[in-house]
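A note from the maintainers: we've had questions about how concatenated examples are separated. There is no special marker in the raw files; a new sequence line simply starts the next protein. For clarity in this README we add a label.
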Amino acid sequence: MFRRARAGMLALDSVRSIYRGREFLPDLFGLARIRTLSSKRSLMENLSKERESVIVDRTSHDGIAVMALNYNMRKNALSKSFTADMAKAVSELEKDKKSRVLIICSLIPGVFCAGADLKERAQVPDDDVPSLVGGLRALFQRIHLLPMPTIAAIDGAALGGGLELALACDIRFAGVLPHCQIGLIETHWALLPGAGGTQRLSRLIGEAKAKELMFAARRLTALEAAKLGVVNEAVKSYLLPDEWKDSPALYRSFRYADELTTKGPIALRLLKRAVNEGLCASSLKEGLDIEGECYKELVHTKDRHEELPYSSSAVSGLSYSAKHRRLIFLLVDALAHDFVRRESDTYPVESLYEMKSYGKDALGIRWLSSRRSPIEHLSTKKETVVLDRTSYNGIAVMALNHQARKNALSKGFVENIEKAVNELENDKSSRVTIICSLVPGVFCAGGDLKERAQVPDDDVPSLVGGLRALFQRIHLLPMPTIAAIDGAALGGGLELALACDIRFAGVLPRCQIGLIASHWAVLPGLGGTQRLSRLIGEAKAKELMFAARRLTALEAAKLGVVNEAVKSYLLPDEWNESPALYRSFRYADELTTKGPIALRLLKRAVNEGLCASSLQEGLDIEGECYKELVHTKDRHEGMCAFMERRKPIYHGH
């Protein structure tokens, strides 16, 4: 058994290595990409011969601007003169309307930026230090607000102010190299991060982890930084061409920047603005309004009209890289499936855990098999949106069934969704709602672009605004909502899922998940820029949206876009094509045993509390919700059941 398990693990490692190689070399064997990036390497080597401490190259890389830090004497320490040179470069970039993306990198081996120039700082009078640091903070904020997407290529130490510079960028890649140390280490010198680090790191990885790192002046490796989310990715050099071994992060930055040059440039700039300003808004509603204004600016652009003739069936064709990802997924899944089936009497610990999670217990298969037949009955209905609030004991099901257009958000289909939402808003008996699809291989294909092409430009903002308002109503439904994603959820389809409280995705070949609007020179206009950024953090959300990335269910679960990726081979045969729906019913059944009023008030406390202007205001909202709960019969039933050591029976009053 152990020999077979080891063989399986070796096979999986081989597949992972192939997959990693494909990530870096997307064309056949990667030869064309290596040649292109080799020419970029030679251009970078030419830049290193320049004498300026900050070099801006906006012409050599086909829409990619490069700001190279080259203060060799002081290892890119932030001295007064070096900072002044950076400010000049930023002034150029603020006026630049041609560059589609900016890479900030270092030409000093082993160093990205060493932080403040403490030797120079020691000579500055105490009264002048706040204005000096304030100027640096303002400069980094200007970098953060540059109109184009910005990437920090960290191939060496980024400490103190060096990491604060990287945090001002939208995306960060770090090379797995011996000298690559990353951290805000100011407390070691009796200082605090003063150039934006306390705020940006806390927003990026969360208050608790940020405090842990900053209090202890922790230095992280690239792999540790990627695991915590300080950088988007740690790039290993052994998979790269020899000339890039010392600068893997720069290689990855050029690769990612090349992707962005194929997207709509105006859409990228407005997408960035929507995320930046939306995350600073006082509420999600205000953030959605900002997104709407950005979308409105985009409507009359020529780039947007370039995408309209494309078929609304975004799921009909896979990109080259997506096809290979699917092929590799199938190979991995086949290996895993074979291993589990052969070792049926001696499951690995992970499989036993998964079986417990998915309900392969003595009763789980039987009672969920009874749930399958009503779902199959729903698929015989002719309505494009089928709402069933009676068949599942407190679980409402809203099934999308627009077979002809793969659930694309056409005008008639959206009107039917709106009718269903009207019913659910007034529904006091349903304890949880599941939104699923009855169209094989598709959850929702996003906007109906064929129909959209016929809409006059002046009418598009109100059309998109109406959809955004509808998805916000789904977000504000009183009961918990679950999206069961057993197929493609692209563009507006993912935005619909993001409006739900919980998302489960099936590990299936056609399950692709992503906000791919920038590929068609538009931006996610139905709440995606705001919800995805709040869900997985600004940096990861920007990385995915800028590049119009399509994720598998496993990738989406790893990033936190969905709560769980559900594997089908552990489920009863009748659920193999809809594992996410199976998991949704399992979770919904759990919720039906909880206090229904408590669930509704809990949801309200979280939704409204996260939109509060301060923690204190959020705590007050929680207090008001708890106050409403105190006099309910359900609460007294819960107390009695606890004292009598029995299961509580709740009635929702």
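[label: protein 2]
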Amino acid sequence: MASGRLLPGHPSEHEDAAMRTTALLLSTLLAPASLTPIEPIEADQLFEIAPYVDSVAATFMDRYAVPGMAIAVVKRGQRRIFSYGVASKESGAPVTPDTLFELGSISKTFTVTLATYSEARGKLSMDGTVGKHLPALSGRPIGQIPLWQLATHSGGGFPLQFPNGVRSERDAMRYYLDWNPSYPGGVRRSYANPSIALLGVITAESLGLSFEHAMEGVLFPKLGLTDTWLRVPMEGRKFYAQGYNPAGIPVRLSKGPLSDQAYGIRSTARDLLRFVELNISPGTDDPLLDRALLKAQVARFKVGPMFQDLIWEQYPYPIAVEALVKGNSDDMVYNVNPTIPITTDVSQGEWLLNKTGGTSGFSSYVLFVPSRQLGIVILTNKSHPNEGRVRLAYALLQLLDRLPPP
């Protein structure tokens, strides 16, 4: 395994504390029923977190047979990127901060950022209907759905994936024309790719651009992302990790109908950490984009332990690991859940925001706490259950949140 250590060794006087802290982190990762508080870490250990991260990363990778992984963390502007294992078992190429991973559904957070950016520019309204923004669908049941419901999985009963007969974008549009709701919009949540894909189509149309150009030619450059792609260029392919399905068979994402809008982005730990930092504290060169980043973080309703934003999912902080696991469980992905109206002021207090992602051969997770200026990125080239990486991130969160300010 390639070491994620950034500094060689650590002072001997801290070895006992390091072992105690690592043991507690591993306990969080492997024994979810109980959580023991982690001892505060002294200020001069701010740059000495590598031994702890190395330990939990090794445990996680062994447990899920993960070939390669990148972990990126930020705490009040201090960044660390850890690289482990191989980008390809066949070539033996190591994972580095430049390794490209498939983001899966984390791509949706970029799609919704593009949508709120278009709204900030006066090109669309998230409260406006599908039919208003895409006249071809006006007069149909789908035309009555407000755009914000497309971004909260609450449009009235979209499936997780397009039906098998939908093989092209033309087929997708025909599907939208024929679609009928299973229940009123906004009252139930069912995690869905076709609905956020439609928002991506509408957003690109509002900007007068193809979706690919809107992302790679407008949004990614404005965010300062230099290694984030829908189409990996020739010169970047040597950095593209090989993914592996749960059986360990090599696999990569193949393009499907409107897959770009829902789960098609590839990126590096470095770029994704920058995106997380901008969501923590927007600071691009475009005030409208800064506004758009924050607009996506406004909760629309509650479902289970989680508050649903525009794609982002948030929780009151601090949070118990079991609540975070439940909010990212299969029940939230595959089942229909009733929505609960928000009756409190969610603009106050501390919140944790997160999003999982996955393709047939990759698994990813991002988490951040704006009030603590703290963020975590986990990228792996193996498909595995959400729970494992959520618990890993929580273990890292427990560590980082106890680091004193730099």
